[in-house]
């Protein structure tokens, strides 16, 4: 039986790419009975029932999966933030980073619309960039109007399966169109009243870009931490994760405990205080959520 990867899901059909061909497939009823939904990104075994048509028989084990957007087997997330319109937010960026880290997906940070900010604001963004690079993240600042920079960004897509994350209006689709104008992906203007863009992508699809695959998705429709337990949160902050074993007490939550290596690192400036404050904010949010039954 042939195997391939689901590159699009639309109206009950799954489009599977296999050896350069695309097959329109349906899922077997057994998936519904087991309450399993094939996802874009899944590697599947399928049975050919007609010309470029078939039935999905088996879903191979997943490396990871996201629920919103529904996609599997992603190895990289490019988190797109804008310098302006909407304004740059470290707390929103850290939300995306925690969600991506919790799934074991490698994050890269893109800060767009640098042409819209004054020099003083640029200096602030450069300072933030240094903070995140010190944590270990790759950070790129640019304007999509700068073709020379866009060419250098192509390396991030090569040989990767990438999901683009970021709030509406930051320029995710515009970025993909700028890198490859032949994509002709649909974009909308920013809403002046809301200060954010409108969702323009209606379904999840993997598209070829620079020798890799990138997910054009409706975006992360939820930024809560429903799948993260309180004791798991610290590991989603690399600078905390790297110092956890130096805490005096096992199971330290890095909040009120004495002789906490994390709090000491914040006091000495080794950990950015705003990142630690975000950790505490997210921890409180997770601890106060209602239990699920």
Features of the shown structure:
293 residues; OB fold (Dihydrolipoamide Acetyltransferase, E2P); Ribonucleotide Reductase Protein R1, domain 1; five-stranded mixed β-barrel; 9 helices; globular; rRNA binding; metal ion binding
Question: What secondary-structure arrangement, pairings included, does this model have?
Answer:
Elements: E1 3-10, E2 13-18, E3 21-27, H1 29-33, E4 43-50, E5 53-59, E6 65-66, E7 71-72, E8 76-82, H2 90-102, E9 106-112, H3 119-135, E10 138-141, H4 147-153, E11 161-165, H5 172-179, E12 190-191, E13 196-197, E14 205-209, E15 212-216, H6 230-233, H7 238-241, H8 261-267, H9 273-287
Parallel strand pairs: 3-5, 8-9, 8-11, 9-10, 11-15
Antiparallel strand pairs: 1-2, 1-4, 2-3, 4-5, 6-7, 12-13, 14-15
Helix pairs in contact: 2-9
Subcellular location: Cytoplasm
Keywords: Cytoplasm, GTP-binding, Hydrolase, Metal-binding, Nucleotide-binding, Ribosome biogenesis, RNA-binding, rRNA-binding, Zinc
GO molecular function: GTP binding; GTPase activity; metal ion binding; rRNA binding
Commentary on this structure:
About 4% of the residues have low confidence. The protein contains nine helices and 15 strands. The strands form four sheets. It has a six-stranded mixed sheet with strand order 10-9-8-11-15-14, with helices on both faces. A five-stranded mixed β-barrel has the order 1-2-3-5-4. It has three domains: 59 residues, Nucleic acid-binding proteins (OB fold (Dihydrolipoamide Acetyltransferase, E2P), Beta Barrel), CATH 2.40.50.140; 151 residues, Rossmann fold, CATH 3.40.50.300; 58 residues, Ribonucleotide Reductase Protein R1, domain 1. With 293 residues, the chain is of the alpha/beta class. This is Small ribosomal subunit biogenesis GTPase RsgA. Keywords: Cytoplasm, GTP-binding, Hydrolase, Metal-binding, Nucleotide-binding, Ribosome biogenesis, RNA-binding, rRNA-binding, Zinc. It is an enzyme of class 3 (hydrolase).
């Amino acid at each position: 039986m042939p195997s391939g990867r689901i590159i699009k899901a639309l109206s009950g059909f799954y489009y599977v790419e296999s050896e350069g061909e695309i097959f329109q497939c349906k899922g077997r009823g057994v998936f519904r009975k087991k309450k399993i939904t094939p996802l874009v990104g899944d590697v599947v075994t399928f049975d050919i029932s007609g010309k470029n048509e078939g039935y999905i028989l088996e879903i191979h084990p997943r490396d990871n999966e996201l629920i919103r957007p529904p996609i599997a087997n992603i190895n990289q997330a490019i988190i797109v933030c804008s310098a302006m319109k909407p304004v740059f937010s470290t707390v929103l960026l850290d939300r995306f980073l925690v969600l991506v880290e919790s799934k074991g997906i490698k994050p890269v940070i893109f800060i767009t619309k640098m042409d819209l900010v004054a020099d003083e604001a640029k200096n602030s963004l450069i300072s933030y960039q240094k903070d995140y690079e010190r944590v270990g993240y790759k950070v790129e600042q640019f304007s999509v109007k700068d073709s020379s920079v866009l060419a250098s960004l192509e390396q991030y897509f090569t040989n990767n399966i990438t999901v683009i994350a970021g709030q509406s209006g930051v320029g995710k689709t515009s970025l993909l169109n700028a890198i490859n104008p032949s994509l002709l992906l649909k974009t909308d203007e920013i809403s002046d009243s809301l200060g954010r863009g409108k969702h323009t992508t209606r379904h999840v699809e993997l598209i070829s870009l620079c020798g890799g695959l990138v997910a054009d998705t409706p975006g992360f429709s939820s930024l809560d931490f429903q799948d993260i337990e309180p004791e798991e949160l610290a590991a989603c902050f690399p600078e905390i994760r790297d110092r956890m074993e130096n805490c005096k007490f096992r199971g330290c939550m890095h909040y009120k405990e004495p002789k906490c290596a994390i709090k000491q690192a914040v006091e000495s400036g080794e950990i950015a205080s705003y990142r630690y404050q975000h950790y505490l904010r997210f921890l409180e949010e997770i601890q106060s959520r209602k239990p699920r039954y």
